[in-house]
């Protein structure tokens, strides 16, 4: 797995409401590789921080780790708290 992780959230609009948070990477064959997902009530700083803490169980903080997102403020704040070494 490359040390680049893409994180994003999307609204669930069916009978089950909420927000789906996902973390995805690219494997050695350039295929998308889902790492983690979670369903939360809303996309806010607390939800992203919870998701990042769960992700940290699998992917440790490291200087060579990079995150790609849509630059939402709540994602950036959660990354600063949970992954301070990552870019």
From TrEMBL:
Location of the MULE transposase domain: 4-86
Listed Pfam families: MULE
PANTHER family linked to this entry: MUTATOR TRANSPOSASE MUDRA PROTEIN, POLYPROTEIN, PUTATIVE-RELATED
Protein's name in the database: MULE transposase domain-containing protein
Source organism: Brassica oleracea var. oleracea
